[in-house]
Amino acid sequence: MTWKTVFAAGALLCLLAACGDSTKTDEAEKAPAVAAQADPPGKAVYASLCVTCHEGQVPKAPHFSMLQIMSPESIYRALTIGVMQDEAASLSDTQKRDVARYLSGHDFGESTAAKLPQCTGDTAAFDRDAPPGTVNWGLRANNTRIIDAATARLSKEQAPKLKLLWAFAYPDAVRARSQPTIAAGAIFVGSHDGSVFALDQATGCVRWTFHASAEVRTGIAVTPWQAGDPAAKPALYFGDLLGNVYAVDAFSGQELWRDRADEHQNATITGSPSLHDGMLYVPVSSLEVSPAVDPKFECCKFRGSVVAYEAATGRRVWQTFTIDTPAAVTGKNPSGTDMYGPSGAPIWNSPAIDAKRGQLYVGTGENYSSPATLTSDAIIAIDLKSGKVNWSFQATPNDAWNVSCDSKTPDNCPKEDGPDFDFGAATMVASLSDGRDLVLGGQKSGMVWALDPDTGKLVWNQKVGRGGIQGGIHFGMAADGDTLYVPISDGEDGRTYPEERRPGLYGLDMKTGEYVWKSPAVDVCNGRKFCERGISGAVTAIPGMVIAGGMDGMLRIHDGGTGAVLWEYDTTGEVTSIAGTKAHGGSIGGASGPIVVDGRLYVNSGYGIYGHMPGNVLLVFGTE
User: Where on the phi/psi map is residue 207: left (φ > 0), alpha (ψ -120 to 50), or beta?
Assistant: First the structure.
């Protein structure tokens, strides 16, 4: 058995109480565990009004297991002013609240959202003279995650002088994993409770709040514009936990369009959409890997994909699946339930754009059921205009796995049974000093792969970490010049491996794959619960430096040439937020990497999921 609890509630509660601990990575959410209760008031309402749509009969309706991941506030909002208000019109306010409690497994808390300071006067105004220095999650279209010196404006001499300026506490949250985007004098960021905030860059006051249907854990892409353009109407693009894609006016917070990226009931969006040349490219993942623990669940039917939208209108241009054919019945599991396949190969990372070749690159995860395909655990090149697959490189063959494999109810476990070595970290395309371009991908196995972008042929590979369920390489590498920065998690996950753990940060020469330097993680946990010393989250480069947040809550700036630590800060300490409330960070995980703009460093801290330290803060550092 592995250490990490697979959380579920409601209909799956008795199953999971028997199965003990199990695992999965960030693309497969687990609903919080709830105490059993005889007859929750909302159960009867759900059974009479909701169950028909949400348990299989309506393809686009999110599955019951996905509703259990939402907060009661998010569910209530959907029933009162959101997408479900017409369907819930016959319910009293009490019934809506009962349903929200039943599905989420939590009671309503006293929301801190009302206490957030609202911007007035000059702080409420957006600055058209400040277009974004970065557009997509990868900070550059090619996903190298480097911020140029003119945008960052932070030198090696200044870095050790950084001090905390202010902190924003996300309301009703135990994790913070939407990477902030800076533009127009504002910080745009999503949150655990489904809110997307536009904050004043200088003070953190709230300019507007947009409410998505569920948690927004993606980064936010923003339309670029020319400084001072009085006609500029930039839009923000992001996805939510339920698989919805949104376009929102950056200056007003008004919704421009939305679409559910995939009809599958368990579809979700983990990786940030990439914006390029008027098109929005959205990676689609799934949570189907978790309900597979139920022997009565028909596992599995989801196929990963990339969906291309016309950014201005939301018109769908193409959708390319990672598995060509829809899943079909392959037999029955030991409980007599139909089994389906092939399935899986989700995409839970942000597409890298290669404008030179007119293609994008994504990494895929494991298959969820047998038979295993040639496109799981693979890097795939897709034509930007047509959606045609140009090539595919598979790193780990025969990887089929779902949550049931590490449980006491393994009826739906495919015969391959893992090892579950997804490409969680986004791929990148980098230009080297010798004139070559390489596609680079980091895998949960701890392996870095370098491929020829024209053919997909292997150029070199290097095993940096031991690997594991949560990495290895988990959420994102960065590059500066010829140096590739590789974060390694290598956390304890209950499995036995032939190699020793190697958590820390490593520099590789991209020309050869050889080490430039090694910076093993120092253990500062001292036995603290839920504390790990590896680096799971995405890292960020600025010229001559690389910034990494650890699962131990430590934020560190390393010298890009040697790996030496130039500055560090413990984000788990208590701080006073701009609203006057006490808050703290926790583990720094997920795809939310640090951002540096105009000499200020922005970082999210808190990863209260999968047995890591919770927290709910956006911390802002500067030298002034």
Answer: alpha
